[in-house]
Design goal:
The complex is a heterodimer of chains A (88) and B (131). With 88 residues, chain A is mostly helical. In chain A, 62% of the residues lie in helices and 0% in strands. Chain A is built from three helices and no strands. The longest helix of chain A is centred in the last third of the chain and has 23 residues. Chain A starts with 8 loop residues before the first helix and ends in an 11-residue tail after the last helix. By secondary structure, chain B is of the alpha+beta class. Chain B has a four-stranded antiparallel sheet with strand order 1-2-3-4, with no helix packed on it. Chain B has one domain. Classes of the chains: A mainly alpha (88), B alpha+beta (131). Chains A and B meet through α1, α2 and α3 of A and α1 and α2 of B.
């Protein structure tokens, strides 16, 4: 029996997000995590374009990608200050 | 001010009521403060404190397990688009997501978690059907 057989949907979501470091993002990792999420969206967008399906999903994925890019630019424009150990 | 929230609460009397004192994990350890309201984000619930800080439910003492999270397909297009607009506005206004427990930090965390789950899940399903 695989680990996922015993998991509820919420437990699976928690595990997936924890493994991706997205439950509570470290303060110095926002730009990196935005980049990780962007890559996931790009993979899906590519699938949708390749199969020429899911017009609505394609549109919302493209919009989300634009949002992530906008946020990434802003975060990158303000690099993190030297880490404060109490904030890590 | 009302009674302190006990460490373990049942689902029936959760979340606490406005004005109750709650304990939660902060970057400096355990803190106790006054709870104002609870709001659903795109994935989990956020607890708004009287001082304006936003704390995810899983950091509140006594939070029932397992937690209740939303499924990605429960989030409407409108809700997602409004969230995207708010995030871009906050970024344009020069807010910094690295301010822990503040509104931008909380909303960006949830948006990234939601977007990841939304597209990662789809990707897994595609992989599964290809086996």
């Amino acid at each position: 029996m695989s680990r996922s057989d015993d998991e509820t949907e919420e437990q699976r979501a928690w595990r997936v997000l924890s493994e991706a470091g997205l439950v509570e993002i470290r303060l110095d990792e926002f730009a990196e995590k935005i980049g990780d999420v962007k890559r996931i969206v790009i993979v899906r967008l590519r699938e949708l374009l390749d199969f020429n399906t899911g017009n609505k999903e394609r549109e919302s994925a493209a919009y989300s990608l634009g949002t992530l890019r906008g946020l990434e630019l802003k975060v990158l424009a303000n690099p993190p200050k030297p880490p404060d150990p109490s904030e890590m | 001010m009302k009674s302190t929230v006990k460490l373990r609460r049942s689902q029936a009397n959760w979340p606490p009521e406005e004005g109750q004192i709650i304990s939660f994990r902060s970057s400096s350890g355990s803190e106790t403060t006054i709870f104002k309201e609870v709001r659903w984000g795109l994935v989990w619930r956020d607890f708004i404190l009287q001082d304006g800080r936003v704390i995810p439910e899983h950091r509140i003492s006594g939070c029932p397990q397992p937690q209740v999270w939303r499924k990605t397909n429960e989030v409407t297009d409108n809700e997602r688009e409004e969230c995207e607009e708010r995030l871009l506005s906050m970024a344009e206004a020069g807010m910094d997501p690295r301010k822990r427990d503040q509104a931008f930090w909380a909303e960006l965390n949830q948006y990234l978690a939601y977007t990841y789950l939304r597209f990662k899940q789809t990707g897994c399903e595609v992989e599964d059907t290809e086996r």
